[in-house]
Amino acid sequence: MHSMRIALVSPYSWTYPGGVTRHIESLAAELIGRGHDVRVLAPYDPCDRLSARLHRGHMPEDRPMPDYLVPLGRTVGFPANGAVSNLAASPSAIARARRELDTGGYDVVHVHEPVAPLVGWDTLCSTDLPLVGTFHCYSDNVVSNGFASLIGARRRLNQLKVRIAVSDAAAWTGKRFYGGRYRVIPNGVQLPADRPRPQLARNEGEPMRIAFVGQSVERKGLPILLRAFEALREHVPAELTLVGVDGDDVAQVLEDSRGVTALGKVDDATKDRVLREADVLAAPSLGGESFGMVLTEAFAQGTPVVASDIPGYRDVVREGVDGVLVARGDATALAEALRDLGLDPERRRAMALAATERAERFAWPQVADEVLTAYRDAIAVPVPATRRARLAVRSGFAVADGLPRVPATRLASLEVDAANRSRAGRAALRRIAMVLALVAGIAASFFALRRIGIDRIGDSLVSSSPPWVLAALGLMCLSMIVRAVAWHAILKAALPQASVRRSDALQGTMIGVLMSATLPARLGEPARAMIVARRVGRPKETLPVVVGTLVSQTLLNIVALLILGITMFSTVHYFDGQHAALVVFAVAPIAVLLAVLVAPALLRSGLPKRSERVARVLKQARAASTQVRAGLAVFKSPRLGATATVAQLGAWGIQWVSCYTLLVAFGLDQQAGIGAAAAVLFAVNVTAVLPATPSNVGVFQAACVAVLTGAYGVSYADALGYGIILQAVEIATAIVMGTPALLREGLTWKDVRLRAMHVSPVELAPAAGAQPRRQGGEAYELDM
Questions:
Q1: Which stretches make up the Glycosyltransferase subfamily 4-like N-terminal domain (predicted)?
Q2: pLDDT for 583
Q3: Cα 9 to Cα 43: distance, rounded to the nearest angstrom
Q4: For residues 41 and 23, what is the distance between their CA atoms, to the nearest angstrom?
Q5: How confident is the model at residue 560 (pLDDT cuts 50, 70, 90)?
């Protein structure tokens, strides 16, 4: 067979290896083993501090530079597709690649991820050599792919004589956004010399071994797996080994690490050993996977998988044969699938046999044969006969493969199940809403600044009195402490058997305020509940009751809003004739209380059920409403109920005085007095129910302007200045009190954010013929 000189072009850093780099490295080794002359053109980041600074503090792997690597310089880490893409961003990388391709005497150039900037993107139009492109990415993002097409991606990709996609999902992306013809050639896997034999059924009581291989990035779904495992180990003996994840990553989500071993980064031999010894690989990715090399690596070791039902993974896993697919992001479904396999060792063994057989399809010898065929076909494409045809190809208006052009086509979504379609639809609506809110905010700010004048706003800010602003800050901090006193009384009533200290409630309150001030969603509530639950007992057992106690504070907050509303309405003639609204405020807390107390009775198990799923939902709703009612136990105790009520309403009163103090600071107390302070506090809390931005920045100021200007005649400049300072006081309160609390708790902001996002424990109903169990003994140490 004729030997070829081949250039493999990669946009990604060699020393921050991901799936594409691993694929290129293995392909190069296979081709070199067959006698071909191969060079890999890829960026290379040395192991130094500058590399860490360019990649958000992450050091590159200390990998030796192979003889076949042509280094193209450093890269920068860019967030993309739920992970980080380490791409060359300097003109020198392009210059080095061009120089190598011009002088290297190559027969064919294989560009990996040709749409990714900058190296591969430039290669498409800077060389006359036969070009082959492999598309590794699956994406349904209309914005990013549409932008790439807008700046010329379709014409550049027409330079390719052969297009390869690693999966049907990756081919879908290419056809949908860029057009063209695609050969599906999967990522390869190295089969071990000694083929694995499926594990025999384990002895009774011996734990099922579960493996996870991947980075601790959001789209890999590690928090989903940890929550599922937390529930699973109560039902079947199980051990979880994590490759690519360290103990700190586990501690961000899981309080009790029994049965979990975190190995961190390991070499390939250790990874293969973990996969071979495992009974099942868990791959709970949330999306963005075009293929899933970790699945074929598990198959090569004779290990079946439980994976998310997402495009890319469906191209690898045969449902029920060599793996099980579960709804993405559903920790309960993942736990149930793992439990079913744990209770059925013979099914695991049959799936392991099927996985071993399935791995043959992805073996590197077969994959390399298909890639070499693509190279030969690209080289064999004739040069266009006429100068006009050559110019059309060179400019990208004609396709280099000599076949009729296939335009981009709107294709049916690969998100086949209703849950995924609904999730994708909600995500799209959120993105659209965020864009619209951003545009509206920029436009409103522009017109407001034009109307008010920046100089007038500046004058208003400068003229405010610093001592009064500091007094307002002190009052706001005091109100947080008083809120913690109220919550402590509520917690004592709800958890009579637990030792709940005032410091527990104070820590939770302070950290919750900090999270509310720095995140766009209402993660402050679950964050503070999580902090208290981990302090007073087993979080899984105490968390539902702690969450229920938040309802008591919510009811008291409604009462406080009612008082503020009455004050506001009684001091402003603008609201005359609108007193019917007061009836709504008065009825609201009573309606909520009745709903909470009556819900368990309405959801009794004797009601008709249409399906098992409906029954499960009703059961969960009954449990939740009962937990919420337990949180209202404070109102059964005259002493604790009085403490909670007085303290919670007192905290609102202190905030009210703080708002008034700021009016004094701006010299507005004669024009807008105590009633205006009540109106401002009322407005900013009502608009914060669904915050659009961290601390509701923008909406907060708009509420202040609407109230002070529309109802009290304060100038736009003074009202906006007041809104800016009031929010600054609230954020300063969160930072001044929340940051020390976070440090005392021994957690980072990222820890609390992840735990708040995945705070709900997973509950599994007992399987038929099995009894729930608890693993005894001390918690396992995390191997670092």
A1: 17-190
A2: 43
A3: 10
A4: 14
A5: confident
Residues 118, 165, single domain; the answer is yes
What is the C-alpha to C-alpha distance for residues 77 and 404, in angstroms, rounded to an integer?
A: 38
pLDDT confidence tier of residue 596, bands split at 50, 70 and 90 = very low
What is each CA distance from 762 to 147, 239, 335, 780, in whole angstroms?
40, 17, 8, 21
- DSSP codes of every residue in 591-652: HHHHHHHHHHHHT-TTS--SSHHHHHHHHHHHHHHHHHHHHTGGGG-HHHHHHHHHHHHHHH
- CA–CA dist 39, 129 (Å, integer): 15
Residues 6+ apart with CB under 8 A from 390: 383, 384
| Sheet bearing 238-243, strands edge to edge | 260-264, 238-243, 208-213, 280-283, 305-308, 323-326
Q: What is the pLDDT of residues 399-434, one digit of tens each?
A: 998 888 899 998 888 876 544 555 555 555 555 655
pTM, entire model: 0.70
Q: What is the DSSP string of 244-278?
A: S--HHHHHTT-S--TTEEEEES--HHHHHHHHHH-
325 lies in the same domain as 388: no
Segment 354-383 mean pLDDT: 94
Residues 433 and 496 reside in one and the same domain = no
pLDDT attached to residue 607 = 43
- CATH number of the domain bearing residue 231: 3.40.50.2000
Query: Does 766 reside within a domain?
Result: no
472 shares its domain with 493: yes
SS3 371: helix
What element of type H or E holds 37?
A: strand 37-42
Same domain, 631 and 562: yes
Please say whether the dihedral angle defined by the alpha carbons of residues 381, 383, 389 and 394, taken in this order, is positive or negative. positive
**Which of 142-151, 348-357, 410-419, 536-545 is modeled with the greatest confidence?**
348-357
Any idea what DSSP says for residue 363? B
Enclosing domain of residue 132: 5-188+366-394
Same structural domain, 676 and 623: yes
Quick one: pLDDT band at residue 759, thresholds 50, 70, 90? low
Give residue 296's identity as a one-letter amino acid code: T
d(CA 42, CA 29) in angstroms, rounded, equals: 15
Q: What percent of the chain has pLDDT over 90?
A: 34
Helix (H, G, I), strand (E, B) or coil at 108: strand
In a domain, 784, yes or no: no
